[in-house]
């Protein structure tokens, strides 16, 4: 079942260690950051090209609307460009970008909720490497996706956020903690409660 990876207690991993020492790629990125902070537009463009796909994917997973996700992604890099001179790379650039994107998505989701309800399934179908499904399997999967959509929508924002970051984006607990500005223990507890609530909702709804 689709929900098993989100609701299974066994899937709740122990908090991962803090960020490791910088890899050669991170060292190259740090050089680009310093150059961009000094006003090099091509260096900032390289940073955007390196991160825009992942930031867009996060925005889409959160907002479930391609148009809103594109705008939130664009606004993320506009704010990043403005704030880059004050950025201190104590953590990864991607963490900082996710923090900006999360705040923008929160604001956009609240504004949108006042005008019309949203669905986590609006947009293109997920391209999962599961091989070609039979018509029956496809129907079951679509039903599960629709049910998962309703379950996620039923969660409070703080539980939905941690599931998107950890389960859909695959970030470790240290990264989630940095983005959500809380402790790793808080992330672990919030994720556990989110899984519990989603699992309980799933059982209540039945099949």
What does this structure look like?
The chain is an all-alpha fold. It folds into two domains: 22-118, Rna Polymerase Sigma Factor, Chain: A (Orthogonal Bundle); 133-207, Winged helix-like DNA-binding domain superfamily/Winged helix DNA-binding domain (Arc Repressor Mutant, subunit A, Orthogonal Bundle). It has helices at residues 4-7, 24-37, 41-63, 66-83, 93-113, 135-154, 157-168, 173-180, 184-205. Helix 7 (157-168) crosses helix 9 (184-205). It is elongated. Mean pLDDT is 77; it is low at 1-22 and 117-131.
Topology overview:
Blueprint: H1 4-7, H2 24-37, H3 41-63, H4 66-83, H5 93-113, H6 135-154, H7 157-168, H8 173-180, H9 184-205
Helix pairs in contact: 2-3, 3-4, 3-5, 4-5, 5-8, 7-9, 8-9
Q: Features of this protein?
A:
207 residues, Rna Polymerase Sigma Factor, Chain: A, mainly alpha, 9 helices, Arc Repressor Mutant, subunit A
Short description:
This protein has 207 residues and is mainly alpha-helical. It has helices at 4-7, 24-37, 41-63, 66-83, 93-113, 135-154, 157-168, 173-180, 184-205.
């Amino acid at each position: 079942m689709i929900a098993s990876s989100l609701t299974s207690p066994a899937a709740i991993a122990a908090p991962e260690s803090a960020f490791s020492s910088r890899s050669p790629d991170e060292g190259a990125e740090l050089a680009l950051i310093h150059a961009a902070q000094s006003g090099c537009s091509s260096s900032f463009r390289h940073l955007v090209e390196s991160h825009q796909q992942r930031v867009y994917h996060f925005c889409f997973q959160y907002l479930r609307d391609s148009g809103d996700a594109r705008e939130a992604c664009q606004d993320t890099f506009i704010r990043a460009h403005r704030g880059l001179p004050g950025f201190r790379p104590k953590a990864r650039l991607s963490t900082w970008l996710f923090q900006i994107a999360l705040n923008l998505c929160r604001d956009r989701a609240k504004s949108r909720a006042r005008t019309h309800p949203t669905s986590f399934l609006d947009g293109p179908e997920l391209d999962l490497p599961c091989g070609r499904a039979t018509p029956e399997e496809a129907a079951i999967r679509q039903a599960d996706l629709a049910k998962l959509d309703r379950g996620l929508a039923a969660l409070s924002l703080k539980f939905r956020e941690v599931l998107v970051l950890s389960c859909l984006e695959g970030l470790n607990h240290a990264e989630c903690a940095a983005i959500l500005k809380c402790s790793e223990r808080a992330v672990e507890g919030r994720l556990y409660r989110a899984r519990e609530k989603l699992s309980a909702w799933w059982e209540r709804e039945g099949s």
